[in-house]
Amino acid sequence: MAGKQEFRLAHTMIRVRDLEKSMAFYTGPLGMTVLSNTDYPDGKFTNVFVGYGDENSSAVVELTHNWDQAEPYDLGTGWGHLAIEMGDIYAACEEMATMGATVSRPPGPMMHGTTHIAFVEDPDGYKIELIQTGTGSR
User: Fold this and answer.
1) To 5 degrees, how large is the angle CA 95–CA 85–CA 105?
2) What's the whole-number mean pLDDT along residues 82-105?
3) pLDDT at residue 28 above 70?
4) Same domain membership, residue 15 and residue 60
5) Residue 95 phi/psi, 5° resolution?
6) Measured between alpha carbons, how far is 130 from 30 in angstroms, rounded to an integer?
7) Is position 36 within any domain?
8) Radius of gyration of the chain (CA)
9) Which of 40, 41, 76, 106 is 20 to 30 A from 113 via CA?
10) Which residue range(s) make up the domain with 91?
């Protein structure tokens, strides 16, 4: 990179059909905080930033709701998933399931490895990988 310029990952944007359901998922089962919520009437969309820390210092998720979107989005085959690290994915998945979240890949060791992972899906079907950290692996 040119010079000593510093870079950081700011956010990942995903398009969501039902903003209220998506906000409930990211702030409920995933425990994020709504950092900002801005309507853009001229563009007919709303941007909601959610995350675990301040968006000036932490990578966050931008939920973009296009007001005219009636059909589900094509999730495509190129984009993979968001990943969130936590201490106990087993307990987290149990709690998320009781909150109505879809656990699409139960917790366990990853194929061809020892790291314990799980996957949940948001209301639009976006996959979120949960990665167990520390020595609490089961």
Assistant:
1) 55
2) 95
3) yes
4) yes
5) -65, -45
6) 10
7) yes
8) 16
9) 76
10) 82-132
Residues in the chain: 138
- pLDDT confidence of residue 89: 95
Q: How confident is the model at residue 2 (pLDDT cuts 50, 70, 90)?
A: low
Give the phi and the psi of residue 90 in degrees, each rounded to 5: -65, -50
CB 118 within 8 A of CB 103: yes
User: Residue 3: which pLDDT band, with cuts at 50, 70 and 90?
Assistant: low
Token pair of 127, please? 């996959």
SS3 25: helix
Tally of domains within the chain:
2
Would you call 62 a catalytic residue per the annotation?
no
Which residue's entry shows tokens 């990853």? 110
Q: Pick the catalytic residue: 55, 95, 121, 129?
A: 129
Mean pLDDT for 2-19 is: 85
